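Follow-up to my earlier ticket, as requested here are the two runs.
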Amino acid sequence: MEKKSLSRQTADRLYNIIVAEKRMAPGEQLPNELGLARELGISRTTLREAVRALTERGVLEIRRGKGTFVSERVEHLENFGFDKLGGMRGRLRDLFELRAVFEPSAARLACRRATPEELAEILDWGGRVEACILAGEDRTRADREFHAAIVRATHNEFMARLLPMINQAVGQAIRTGEGQEKLARDTLRDHALLLEFFRRRDEEGAEHAMAIHMRHSIDALELEE
Protein backbone atom coordinates (compact mmCIF):
# COMPACT_ATOMS: atom_id res chain seq x y z
CA MET A 1 0.00 0.00 0.00
CA GLU A 2 1.30 3.42 -0.92
CA LYS A 3 1.91 5.54 2.14
CA LYS A 4 0.91 9.16 2.37
CA SER A 5 3.54 11.70 1.46
CA LEU A 6 5.30 13.51 4.27
CA SER A 7 3.57 16.76 3.32
CA ARG A 8 0.14 15.11 3.65
CA GLN A 9 1.10 13.60 6.99
CA THR A 10 2.25 17.04 8.12
CA ALA A 11 -0.99 18.65 6.91
CA ASP A 12 -2.99 16.07 8.88
CA ARG A 13 -0.88 16.68 11.96
CA LEU A 14 -1.36 20.44 11.78
CA TYR A 15 -5.08 19.95 11.14
CA ASN A 16 -5.34 17.89 14.30
CA ILE A 17 -3.38 20.45 16.35
CA ILE A 18 -5.59 23.31 15.16
CA VAL A 19 -9.05 21.78 14.68
CA ALA A 20 -9.19 18.75 16.97
CA GLU A 21 -6.87 19.64 19.83
CA LYS A 22 -7.51 23.39 19.57
CA ARG A 23 -3.97 24.31 20.52
CA MET A 24 -4.26 27.37 18.28
CA ALA A 25 -7.17 29.80 18.24
CA PRO A 26 -8.86 31.37 15.22
CA GLY A 27 -6.87 34.40 14.12
CA GLU A 28 -3.68 33.18 15.80
CA GLN A 29 -0.50 33.39 13.76
CA LEU A 30 1.55 30.26 13.07
CA PRO A 31 5.08 30.22 14.50
CA ASN A 32 7.81 31.26 12.11
CA GLU A 33 8.46 28.80 9.33
CA LEU A 34 11.96 27.76 10.39
CA GLY A 35 10.99 27.16 14.01
CA LEU A 36 7.84 25.22 13.16
CA ALA A 37 9.66 23.06 10.63
CA ARG A 38 12.28 22.19 13.25
CA GLU A 39 9.62 21.41 15.84
CA LEU A 40 7.86 19.03 13.44
CA GLY A 41 11.11 17.51 12.22
CA ILE A 42 10.49 18.34 8.57
CA SER A 43 11.94 20.55 5.86
CA ARG A 44 10.64 24.02 5.15
CA THR A 45 9.55 22.83 1.70
CA THR A 46 7.41 20.08 3.24
CA LEU A 47 5.90 22.58 5.67
CA ARG A 48 5.03 24.96 2.85
CA GLU A 49 3.25 22.17 0.97
CA ALA A 50 1.29 21.26 4.10
CA VAL A 51 0.36 24.90 4.72
CA ARG A 52 -0.78 25.23 1.12
CA ALA A 53 -3.03 22.19 1.51
CA LEU A 54 -4.57 23.51 4.73
CA THR A 55 -5.09 26.90 3.13
CA GLU A 56 -7.09 25.25 0.37
CA ARG A 57 -9.18 23.47 3.02
CA GLY A 58 -9.95 26.74 4.80
CA VAL A 59 -8.01 25.89 7.95
CA LEU A 60 -5.27 28.47 7.37
CA GLU A 61 -5.12 31.78 5.57
CA ILE A 62 -2.10 33.66 4.29
CA ARG A 63 -2.07 37.40 4.84
CA ARG A 64 0.37 39.09 2.55
CA GLY A 65 3.13 40.88 4.37
CA LYS A 66 1.99 39.49 7.74
CA GLY A 67 2.25 35.71 7.71
CA THR A 68 0.06 32.62 8.03
CA PHE A 69 -2.87 32.60 10.43
CA VAL A 70 -5.51 30.17 11.65
CA SER A 71 -8.66 30.95 9.72
CA GLU A 72 -11.57 32.54 11.56
CA ARG A 73 -13.75 29.92 9.86
CA VAL A 74 -11.98 27.08 11.65
CA GLU A 75 -14.57 27.19 14.46
CA HIS A 76 -17.21 26.03 12.00
CA LEU A 77 -15.32 22.99 10.74
CA GLU A 78 -16.97 19.69 11.61
CA ASN A 79 -15.89 18.20 14.91
CA PHE A 80 -18.82 15.79 15.35
CA GLY A 81 -19.82 17.53 18.59
CA PHE A 82 -16.97 15.94 20.56
CA ASP A 83 -16.18 19.24 22.27
CA LYS A 84 -19.61 19.29 23.95
CA LEU A 85 -19.34 16.03 25.85
CA GLY A 86 -18.64 17.39 29.31
CA GLY A 87 -21.13 15.90 31.74
CA MET A 88 -22.83 13.75 29.08
CA ARG A 89 -21.89 10.39 30.54
CA GLY A 90 -24.06 8.32 28.21
CA ARG A 91 -22.56 9.88 25.12
CA LEU A 92 -19.09 9.56 26.56
CA ARG A 93 -19.66 5.85 27.09
CA ASP A 94 -20.77 5.60 23.46
CA LEU A 95 -17.56 7.36 22.49
CA PHE A 96 -15.43 4.86 24.38
CA GLU A 97 -17.31 2.04 22.70
CA LEU A 98 -16.43 3.61 19.36
CA ARG A 99 -12.78 3.71 20.41
CA ALA A 100 -13.03 0.06 21.44
CA VAL A 101 -14.16 -0.79 17.92
CA PHE A 102 -11.46 0.96 15.90
CA GLU A 103 -8.40 1.44 18.13
CA PRO A 104 -7.52 -2.28 18.36
CA SER A 105 -7.59 -2.41 14.56
CA ALA A 106 -5.50 0.76 14.46
CA ALA A 107 -2.90 -0.91 16.69
CA ARG A 108 -2.76 -3.90 14.34
CA LEU A 109 -2.32 -1.70 11.28
CA ALA A 110 0.29 0.46 13.00
CA CYS A 111 2.36 -2.63 13.84
CA ARG A 112 2.33 -3.53 10.17
CA ARG A 113 2.79 -0.13 8.57
CA ALA A 114 4.79 2.04 10.97
CA THR A 115 8.11 3.31 9.71
CA PRO A 116 11.07 2.90 12.09
CA GLU A 117 10.70 6.57 12.98
CA GLU A 118 6.99 6.22 13.68
CA LEU A 119 7.57 3.13 15.80
CA ALA A 120 10.18 5.03 17.81
CA GLU A 121 7.66 7.84 18.36
CA ILE A 122 5.03 5.39 19.62
CA LEU A 123 7.50 3.87 22.07
CA ASP A 124 8.70 7.28 23.20
CA TRP A 125 5.22 8.60 23.98
CA GLY A 126 4.36 5.32 25.70
CA GLY A 127 7.36 5.85 27.95
CA ARG A 128 6.26 9.40 28.70
CA VAL A 129 2.80 8.21 29.74
CA GLU A 130 4.40 5.77 32.17
CA ALA A 131 6.69 8.48 33.56
CA CYS A 132 3.75 10.84 34.14
CA ILE A 133 1.77 8.19 36.01
CA LEU A 134 4.70 7.19 38.20
CA ALA A 135 5.41 10.84 39.00
CA GLY A 136 1.77 11.57 39.76
CA GLU A 137 1.62 14.15 36.97
CA ASP A 138 -1.12 14.92 34.47
CA ARG A 139 -0.71 12.47 31.61
CA THR A 140 -3.45 13.88 29.37
CA ARG A 141 -1.14 15.25 26.68
CA ALA A 142 1.24 12.28 26.71
CA ASP A 143 -1.64 9.79 26.50
CA ARG A 144 -3.24 11.77 23.69
CA GLU A 145 0.03 11.90 21.74
CA PHE A 146 0.61 8.18 22.33
CA HIS A 147 -2.70 7.18 20.78
CA ALA A 148 -2.35 9.76 18.01
CA ALA A 149 1.11 8.38 17.13
CA ILE A 150 -0.38 4.91 16.78
CA VAL A 151 -3.15 6.13 14.52
CA ARG A 152 -0.78 8.21 12.37
CA ALA A 153 1.27 5.06 11.83
CA THR A 154 -1.74 3.33 10.27
CA HIS A 155 -1.44 5.71 7.32
CA ASN A 156 -5.24 5.79 7.22
CA GLU A 157 -6.49 9.31 6.63
CA PHE A 158 -9.88 8.91 8.29
CA MET A 159 -8.48 7.30 11.42
CA ALA A 160 -5.90 10.07 11.65
CA ARG A 161 -8.64 12.71 11.59
CA LEU A 162 -10.93 10.98 14.07
CA LEU A 163 -8.72 9.93 16.96
CA PRO A 164 -7.34 13.32 18.05
CA MET A 165 -10.89 14.66 18.28
CA ILE A 166 -11.88 11.74 20.44
CA ASN A 167 -8.83 12.17 22.64
CA GLN A 168 -9.60 15.83 23.15
CA ALA A 169 -13.18 15.12 24.17
CA VAL A 170 -12.20 12.31 26.50
CA GLY A 171 -9.48 14.41 28.09
CA GLN A 172 -11.96 17.19 28.84
CA ALA A 173 -14.70 14.91 30.12
CA ILE A 174 -12.89 12.46 32.39
CA ARG A 175 -9.72 14.22 33.50
CA THR A 176 -10.87 13.86 37.09
CA GLY A 177 -13.11 11.33 38.73
CA GLU A 178 -13.42 8.34 41.00
CA GLY A 179 -12.26 5.88 38.37
CA GLN A 180 -9.05 7.65 37.43
CA GLU A 181 -6.81 6.04 40.03
CA LYS A 182 -7.80 2.56 38.86
CA LEU A 183 -7.44 3.61 35.23
CA ALA A 184 -3.90 4.87 35.91
CA ARG A 185 -2.92 1.49 37.37
CA ASP A 186 -4.54 -0.35 34.49
CA THR A 187 -2.84 1.97 31.99
CA LEU A 188 0.59 1.13 33.38
CA ARG A 189 -0.03 -2.58 32.84
CA ASP A 190 -1.86 -2.22 29.56
CA HIS A 191 0.69 0.09 27.98
CA ALA A 192 3.62 -2.09 29.08
CA LEU A 193 2.04 -5.04 27.27
CA LEU A 194 1.08 -2.96 24.26
CA LEU A 195 4.56 -1.48 23.89
CA GLU A 196 6.14 -4.93 24.07
CA PHE A 197 3.97 -6.10 21.19
CA PHE A 198 4.90 -3.00 19.20
CA ARG A 199 8.60 -3.66 19.76
CA ARG A 200 8.09 -7.16 18.40
CA ARG A 201 5.85 -5.99 15.55
CA ASP A 202 3.27 -8.48 16.81
CA GLU A 203 0.07 -7.32 15.08
CA GLU A 204 -2.32 -9.73 16.77
CA GLY A 205 -0.82 -9.11 20.19
CA ALA A 206 -1.07 -5.33 19.80
CA GLU A 207 -4.68 -5.62 18.69
CA HIS A 208 -5.65 -7.71 21.72
CA ALA A 209 -3.67 -5.50 24.13
CA MET A 210 -5.45 -2.39 22.86
CA ALA A 211 -8.82 -4.11 23.19
CA ILE A 212 -8.03 -4.89 26.82
CA HIS A 213 -6.97 -1.28 27.42
CA MET A 214 -10.22 0.03 25.96
CA ARG A 215 -12.19 -2.38 28.14
CA HIS A 216 -10.41 -1.08 31.22
CA SER A 217 -11.17 2.50 30.14
CA ILE A 218 -14.86 1.72 29.87
CA ASP A 219 -14.80 0.01 33.27
CA ALA A 220 -13.21 3.10 34.84
CA LEU A 221 -15.79 5.33 33.23
CA GLU A 222 -18.63 3.22 34.65
CA LEU A 223 -17.17 3.63 38.14
CA GLU A 224 -17.81 7.37 37.91
CA GLU A 225 -21.53 7.04 37.28
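Run two:
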Amino acid sequence: MNSSDTTQHPAPTPSAQGRGLVLGVESSCDETGVALFDPASGRIVAEALHSQVALHAPYGGVVPELASRDHIRYGLRLIAQTLREAGATQDDVQALAYTQGPGLAGALLVGAQLAASLAFAWRKPVLPVHHMEGHLLSPLLADPAPRFPFVALLVSGGHTQLMRVDGVGRYRLLGESIDDAAGEAFDKSAKLLGLDYPGGPLLARLAETGDATAFALPRPLLHSGNLDFSFAGLKTAVANEVRRLCGTPLPARGAVSLPQPQLPPTHPRRADLAASVQAAIVDVLVAKSLAALRETGLRQLVVAGGVGANARLRTALAQGAAGFGAQVFHPPLALCTDNGAMIAHVGALRLAEARCDYAVNVRPRWALTELAPPLSAS
Protein backbone atom coordinates (compact mmCIF):
# COMPACT_ATOMS: atom_id res chain seq x y z
CA MET A 1 0.00 0.00 0.00
CA ASN A 2 1.48 3.31 -1.07
CA SER A 3 1.00 7.02 -0.74
CA SER A 4 1.70 9.20 -3.78
CA ASP A 5 4.05 11.59 -1.95
CA THR A 6 7.57 11.11 -3.26
CA THR A 7 8.91 14.47 -2.11
CA GLN A 8 12.60 14.34 -1.24
CA HIS A 9 14.82 16.82 0.56
CA PRO A 10 18.55 16.96 1.16
CA ALA A 11 19.70 15.13 4.29
CA PRO A 12 20.04 17.41 7.33
CA THR A 13 23.48 18.69 8.21
CA PRO A 14 25.22 17.16 11.24
CA SER A 15 24.74 20.40 13.19
CA ALA A 16 20.96 19.85 13.00
CA GLN A 17 21.20 16.37 14.51
CA GLY A 18 21.84 17.37 18.14
CA ARG A 19 22.26 14.27 20.28
CA GLY A 20 21.88 11.97 17.27
CA LEU A 21 18.93 9.99 18.64
CA VAL A 22 16.76 7.61 16.61
CA LEU A 23 13.01 7.89 17.15
CA GLY A 24 11.13 4.61 16.66
CA VAL A 25 7.38 4.20 16.06
CA GLU A 26 5.62 0.81 16.32
CA SER A 27 1.99 0.39 15.20
CA SER A 28 1.71 -3.04 13.60
CA CYS A 29 -1.23 -4.34 15.63
CA ASP A 30 -2.80 -3.37 18.95
CA GLU A 31 -0.01 -1.52 20.75
CA THR A 32 1.31 1.95 20.00
CA GLY A 33 4.99 2.13 20.93
CA VAL A 34 7.43 5.03 20.75
CA ALA A 35 11.06 5.15 21.87
CA LEU A 36 14.27 7.15 21.56
CA PHE A 37 17.46 5.17 21.08
CA ASP A 38 21.00 6.53 21.38
CA PRO A 39 23.34 4.78 18.91
CA ALA A 40 26.40 6.21 20.65
CA SER A 41 25.66 4.62 24.02
CA GLY A 42 23.60 1.70 22.70
CA ARG A 43 20.78 2.36 25.15
CA ILE A 44 17.13 3.33 25.21
CA VAL A 45 16.85 6.95 26.33
CA ALA A 46 13.06 7.06 26.80
CA GLU A 47 10.02 5.10 25.70
CA ALA A 48 6.23 5.07 25.93
CA LEU A 49 3.66 2.38 25.18
CA HIS A 50 -0.12 2.34 24.90
CA SER A 51 -1.89 -1.04 24.91
CA GLN A 52 -5.30 -1.52 23.29
CA VAL A 53 -6.24 -4.60 25.33
CA ALA A 54 -9.20 -2.92 27.03
CA LEU A 55 -10.42 -1.56 23.67
CA HIS A 56 -10.56 -4.97 21.97
CA ALA A 57 -11.51 -7.14 24.98
CA PRO A 58 -15.30 -6.90 24.41
CA TYR A 59 -14.82 -8.35 20.92
CA GLY A 60 -12.55 -11.23 21.92
CA GLY A 61 -9.82 -10.16 19.50
CA VAL A 62 -8.29 -7.26 17.61
CA VAL A 63 -10.70 -5.19 15.48
CA PRO A 64 -8.47 -3.67 12.76
CA GLU A 65 -10.48 -0.47 12.25
CA LEU A 66 -10.56 0.27 15.98
CA ALA A 67 -6.84 -0.46 16.21
CA SER A 68 -6.04 2.04 13.45
CA ARG A 69 -8.14 4.77 15.04
CA ASP A 70 -6.50 4.23 18.42
CA HIS A 71 -3.03 4.55 16.88
CA ILE A 72 -4.15 7.91 15.46
CA ARG A 73 -5.41 8.94 18.89
CA TYR A 74 -2.22 8.09 20.80
CA GLY A 75 0.69 8.20 18.34
CA LEU A 76 1.53 11.89 18.41
CA ARG A 77 0.97 12.30 22.14
CA LEU A 78 3.30 9.36 22.89
CA ILE A 79 6.00 10.96 20.73
CA ALA A 80 5.61 14.22 22.63
CA GLN A 81 5.72 12.33 25.94
CA THR A 82 8.87 10.44 24.96
CA LEU A 83 10.70 13.59 23.85
CA ARG A 84 9.67 15.32 27.07
CA GLU A 85 10.88 12.47 29.28
CA ALA A 86 14.20 12.41 27.45
CA GLY A 87 14.61 16.17 27.70
CA ALA A 88 14.98 16.16 23.92
CA THR A 89 13.67 18.17 21.00
CA GLN A 90 13.38 17.49 17.28
CA ASP A 91 16.92 18.82 16.89
CA ASP A 92 18.19 15.88 18.96
CA VAL A 93 16.64 13.37 16.53
CA GLN A 94 18.80 12.38 13.57
CA ALA A 95 16.33 9.89 11.99
CA LEU A 96 12.87 8.40 12.45
CA ALA A 97 12.20 4.65 12.11
CA TYR A 98 8.77 3.08 11.78
CA THR A 99 7.31 -0.40 11.37
CA GLN A 100 6.70 -1.05 7.67
CA GLY A 101 5.39 -4.59 8.19
CA PRO A 102 4.26 -7.23 8.66
CA GLY A 103 1.03 -6.41 10.47
CA LEU A 104 -2.44 -4.93 10.00
CA ALA A 105 -2.45 -2.72 6.91
CA GLY A 106 -4.43 0.13 8.43
CA ALA A 107 -2.45 0.14 11.66
CA LEU A 108 0.84 0.12 9.75
CA LEU A 109 -0.29 3.04 7.61
CA VAL A 110 -1.03 5.16 10.67
CA GLY A 111 2.47 4.72 12.10
CA ALA A 112 4.14 5.10 8.72
CA GLN A 113 2.28 8.30 7.88
CA LEU A 114 2.98 9.71 11.34
CA ALA A 115 6.72 9.04 11.12
CA ALA A 116 6.99 10.23 7.52
CA SER A 117 5.03 13.41 8.24
CA LEU A 118 7.20 14.32 11.22
CA ALA A 119 10.35 13.50 9.28
CA PHE A 120 9.17 15.76 6.45
CA ALA A 121 8.38 18.60 8.88
CA TRP A 122 11.65 18.18 10.79
CA ARG A 123 13.74 17.65 7.62
CA LYS A 124 15.05 14.34 8.93
CA PRO A 125 15.63 11.04 7.11
CA VAL A 126 13.19 8.21 7.66
CA LEU A 127 13.71 4.44 7.79
CA PRO A 128 11.12 1.62 7.38
CA VAL A 129 11.76 -1.35 9.69
CA HIS A 130 10.68 -5.01 9.62
CA HIS A 131 8.61 -5.75 12.73
CA MET A 132 10.04 -9.23 13.24
CA GLU A 133 13.62 -8.00 12.82
CA GLY A 134 12.82 -5.72 15.74
CA HIS A 135 11.85 -8.73 17.85
CA LEU A 136 14.71 -10.85 16.53
CA LEU A 137 17.40 -8.35 17.51
CA SER A 138 15.83 -7.11 20.76
CA PRO A 139 17.90 -9.55 22.88
CA LEU A 140 20.94 -7.50 21.81
CA LEU A 141 19.59 -4.89 24.24
CA ALA A 142 19.88 -7.30 27.17
CA ASP A 143 22.84 -7.83 29.48
CA PRO A 144 24.37 -10.24 28.75
CA ALA A 145 23.64 -10.08 25.04
CA PRO A 146 24.20 -12.83 22.46
CA ARG A 147 26.92 -12.62 19.82
CA PHE A 148 26.52 -13.64 16.19
CA PRO A 149 25.95 -16.32 15.02
CA PHE A 150 23.01 -17.77 16.94
CA VAL A 151 19.73 -19.64 16.52
CA ALA A 152 16.59 -17.55 17.07
CA LEU A 153 13.16 -18.80 18.10
CA LEU A 154 10.57 -16.19 17.14
CA VAL A 155 7.30 -16.86 18.93
CA SER A 156 4.44 -14.37 18.80
CA GLY A 157 0.73 -14.22 18.10
CA GLY A 158 1.26 -14.49 14.36
CA HIS A 159 4.70 -16.07 13.93
CA THR A 160 6.55 -19.19 15.01
CA GLN A 161 9.91 -19.49 13.27
CA LEU A 162 13.39 -20.83 13.84
CA MET A 163 16.14 -18.81 12.17
CA ARG A 164 19.89 -19.05 11.87
CA VAL A 165 21.22 -15.53 12.43
CA ASP A 166 24.76 -14.78 11.23
CA GLY A 167 24.48 -11.00 11.52
CA VAL A 168 22.08 -8.12 10.99
CA GLY A 169 20.11 -8.93 7.85
CA ARG A 170 21.80 -12.33 7.47
CA TYR A 171 18.93 -14.70 8.25
CA ARG A 172 18.25 -18.26 7.13
CA LEU A 173 14.89 -19.89 7.83
CA LEU A 174 15.27 -23.27 9.54
CA GLY A 175 11.60 -24.00 10.22
CA GLU A 176 8.24 -22.33 10.70
CA SER A 177 4.61 -23.02 11.49
CA ILE A 178 2.63 -24.45 8.60
CA ASP A 179 -0.67 -23.30 10.14
CA ASP A 180 -1.37 -21.72 13.53
CA ALA A 181 1.45 -19.97 15.36
CA ALA A 182 2.18 -20.81 19.00
CA GLY A 183 0.58 -17.57 20.15
CA GLU A 184 -2.58 -18.43 18.22
CA ALA A 185 -2.65 -21.86 19.86
CA PHE A 186 -2.47 -20.22 23.28
CA ASP A 187 -5.18 -17.66 22.47
CA LYS A 188 -7.58 -20.06 20.73
CA SER A 189 -7.24 -22.63 23.52
CA ALA A 190 -7.80 -19.90 26.10
CA LYS A 191 -11.05 -18.93 24.39
CA LEU A 192 -12.21 -22.56 24.54
CA LEU A 193 -11.50 -22.47 28.26
CA GLY A 194 -13.71 -19.42 28.62
CA LEU A 195 -10.86 -16.99 29.28
CA ASP A 196 -10.99 -13.34 28.28
CA TYR A 197 -8.86 -11.61 25.63
CA PRO A 198 -5.87 -11.68 25.44
CA GLY A 199 -6.07 -15.30 26.45
CA GLY A 200 -2.46 -16.51 26.28
CA PRO A 201 -1.18 -14.85 29.47
CA LEU A 202 -4.41 -15.77 31.31
CA LEU A 203 -4.04 -19.41 30.28
CA ALA A 204 -0.46 -19.43 31.55
CA ARG A 205 -1.61 -17.99 34.88
CA LEU A 206 -4.40 -20.56 35.20
CA ALA A 207 -1.96 -23.35 34.33
CA GLU A 208 0.10 -22.58 37.43
CA THR A 209 -2.47 -24.42 39.57
CA GLY A 210 -3.11 -27.29 37.16
CA ASP A 211 -1.68 -30.75 36.44
CA ALA A 212 0.19 -30.68 33.13
CA THR A 213 -0.13 -34.46 32.76
CA ALA A 214 -3.91 -34.58 33.26
CA PHE A 215 -4.79 -34.62 29.55
CA ALA A 216 -2.90 -36.53 26.85
CA LEU A 217 -2.87 -33.80 24.23
CA PRO A 218 -0.95 -34.22 20.94
CA ARG A 219 2.48 -32.70 20.24
CA PRO A 220 2.11 -32.04 16.49
CA LEU A 221 5.18 -32.64 14.29
CA LEU A 222 7.26 -33.44 17.37
CA HIS A 223 8.91 -36.35 15.56
CA SER A 224 8.61 -35.04 12.01
CA GLY A 225 12.35 -35.01 11.40
CA ASN A 226 12.27 -31.34 10.40
CA LEU A 227 12.06 -28.02 12.22
CA ASP A 228 8.55 -27.01 11.16
CA PHE A 229 5.65 -26.45 13.57
CA SER A 230 1.91 -27.14 13.48
CA PHE A 231 -0.55 -26.17 16.20
CA ALA A 232 -3.95 -26.29 14.46
CA GLY A 233 -4.44 -29.94 15.41
CA LEU A 234 -3.73 -29.16 19.06
CA LYS A 235 -6.52 -26.57 19.08
CA THR A 236 -8.91 -29.19 17.64
CA ALA A 237 -7.89 -31.66 20.35
CA VAL A 238 -8.54 -29.03 23.04
CA ALA A 239 -11.95 -28.28 21.52
CA ASN A 240 -12.82 -31.99 21.68
CA GLU A 241 -11.71 -32.22 25.31
CA VAL A 242 -13.90 -29.24 26.15
CA ARG A 243 -16.86 -30.97 24.49
CA ARG A 244 -16.29 -34.08 26.56
CA LEU A 245 -15.97 -32.12 29.79
CA CYS A 246 -19.16 -30.21 28.99
CA GLY A 247 -21.03 -33.37 28.02
CA THR A 248 -21.49 -32.16 24.46
CA PRO A 249 -21.35 -34.78 21.67
CA LEU A 250 -18.51 -34.60 19.17
CA PRO A 251 -19.62 -33.70 15.64
CA ALA A 252 -19.94 -36.71 13.34
CA ARG A 253 -17.41 -36.97 10.55
CA GLY A 254 -18.66 -34.94 7.58
CA ALA A 255 -21.58 -33.48 9.53
CA VAL A 256 -22.33 -29.81 9.94
CA SER A 257 -20.28 -28.49 12.87
CA LEU A 258 -22.15 -28.11 16.13
CA PRO A 259 -21.78 -24.97 18.28
CA GLN A 260 -18.52 -25.14 20.22
CA PRO A 261 -19.04 -24.87 23.99
CA GLN A 262 -16.67 -23.08 26.33
CA LEU A 263 -15.56 -24.51 29.63
CA PRO A 264 -17.34 -22.69 32.46
CA PRO A 265 -15.13 -20.85 35.00
CA THR A 266 -16.27 -23.16 37.81
CA HIS A 267 -15.32 -26.42 36.07
CA PRO A 268 -12.94 -28.43 38.32
CA ARG A 269 -10.74 -29.60 35.41
CA ARG A 270 -10.19 -26.14 33.90
CA ALA A 271 -6.73 -25.52 35.39
CA ASP A 272 -5.60 -29.06 34.48
CA LEU A 273 -6.59 -28.55 30.85
CA ALA A 274 -4.82 -25.17 30.78
CA ALA A 275 -1.66 -26.74 32.17
CA SER A 276 -1.85 -29.59 29.65
CA VAL A 277 -2.25 -27.17 26.74
CA GLN A 278 0.72 -25.11 27.86
CA ALA A 279 2.86 -28.22 28.34
CA ALA A 280 2.06 -29.45 24.82
CA ILE A 281 3.01 -26.14 23.21
CA VAL A 282 6.17 -25.75 25.29
CA ASP A 283 7.30 -29.33 24.64
CA VAL A 284 7.17 -28.77 20.87
CA LEU A 285 8.90 -25.39 21.01
CA VAL A 286 11.68 -26.73 23.21
CA ALA A 287 12.24 -29.90 21.21
CA LYS A 288 12.46 -28.05 17.89
CA SER A 289 14.71 -25.32 19.32
CA LEU A 290 17.17 -27.84 20.75
CA ALA A 291 17.09 -29.76 17.46
CA ALA A 292 17.99 -26.51 15.66
CA LEU A 293 20.98 -26.01 17.95
CA ARG A 294 22.15 -29.57 17.30
CA GLU A 295 21.62 -29.23 13.55
CA THR A 296 23.54 -25.97 13.25
CA GLY A 297 26.20 -26.76 15.85
CA LEU A 298 25.58 -23.36 17.47
CA ARG A 299 25.45 -22.90 21.23
CA GLN A 300 23.42 -19.70 21.56
CA LEU A 301 19.62 -19.58 21.39
CA VAL A 302 17.75 -16.27 21.24
CA VAL A 303 14.05 -16.28 22.14
CA ALA A 304 11.94 -13.28 21.09
CA GLY A 305 8.29 -12.35 20.69
CA GLY A 306 5.38 -12.20 23.10
CA VAL A 307 5.24 -15.94 23.83
CA GLY A 308 8.89 -15.71 24.84
CA ALA A 309 7.70 -14.16 28.11
CA ASN A 310 6.05 -17.46 29.12
CA ALA A 311 7.74 -18.60 32.34
CA ARG A 312 7.40 -22.35 31.69
CA LEU A 313 8.93 -21.94 28.22
CA ARG A 314 11.85 -19.95 29.62
CA THR A 315 12.58 -22.54 32.28
CA ALA A 316 12.29 -25.51 29.93
CA LEU A 317 14.51 -23.94 27.27
CA ALA A 318 17.18 -23.01 29.84
CA GLN A 319 17.21 -26.53 31.26
CA GLY A 320 17.28 -28.19 27.85
CA ALA A 321 20.02 -25.92 26.48
CA ALA A 322 22.18 -26.40 29.57
CA GLY A 323 22.10 -30.13 28.90
CA PHE A 324 24.59 -29.72 26.05
CA GLY A 325 26.36 -26.52 26.99
CA ALA A 326 24.18 -23.99 25.19
CA GLN A 327 22.94 -20.64 26.53
CA VAL A 328 19.54 -18.99 26.09
CA PHE A 329 19.10 -15.23 25.66
CA HIS A 330 15.91 -13.18 26.05
CA PRO A 331 15.17 -9.50 25.59
CA PRO A 332 14.29 -7.57 28.73
CA LEU A 333 10.82 -8.74 29.79
CA ALA A 334 9.25 -5.37 28.94
CA LEU A 335 10.51 -5.72 25.34
CA CYS A 336 8.96 -9.14 24.67
CA THR A 337 5.70 -7.65 23.44
CA ASP A 338 5.45 -5.07 20.64
CA ASN A 339 7.28 -1.83 21.51
CA GLY A 340 8.93 1.21 19.99
CA ALA A 341 12.36 0.45 21.45
CA MET A 342 12.98 -2.53 19.18
CA ILE A 343 12.06 -0.42 16.13
CA ALA A 344 14.34 2.44 17.17
CA HIS A 345 17.11 -0.10 17.85
CA VAL A 346 16.90 -1.62 14.37
CA GLY A 347 16.72 1.91 12.96
CA ALA A 348 20.04 2.64 14.64
CA LEU A 349 21.57 -0.58 13.28
CA ARG A 350 20.43 0.32 9.76
CA LEU A 351 20.99 4.07 10.02
CA ALA A 352 22.93 4.19 6.75
CA GLU A 353 19.72 3.22 4.94
CA ALA A 354 17.73 6.23 6.22
CA ARG A 355 16.59 8.53 3.43
CA CYS A 356 14.72 11.82 3.09
CA ASP A 357 12.10 10.04 1.01
CA TYR A 358 8.64 10.46 2.50
CA ALA A 359 6.65 8.09 0.32
CA VAL A 360 4.80 5.54 2.45
CA ASN A 361 4.85 1.89 1.46
CA VAL A 362 3.63 -0.58 4.08
CA ARG A 363 4.00 -4.35 3.76
CA PRO A 364 1.34 -6.31 5.71
CA ARG A 365 3.03 -9.52 4.53
CA TRP A 366 6.80 -9.53 4.49
CA ALA A 367 9.18 -12.45 4.91
CA LEU A 368 12.11 -11.84 7.24
CA THR A 369 14.41 -13.68 4.84
CA GLU A 370 13.86 -10.96 2.22
CA LEU A 371 16.02 -8.57 4.24
CA ALA A 372 19.63 -7.84 3.36
CA PRO A 373 22.54 -6.76 5.57
CA PRO A 374 22.77 -3.03 6.37
CA LEU A 375 24.35 -0.86 3.71
CA SER A 376 27.28 -0.10 6.03
CA ALA A 377 28.01 -3.83 6.27
CA SER A 378 27.88 -4.49 2.52
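The only thing I checked on run two: The first strand starts at residue 21 and ends at 26. Let me know what else you need.
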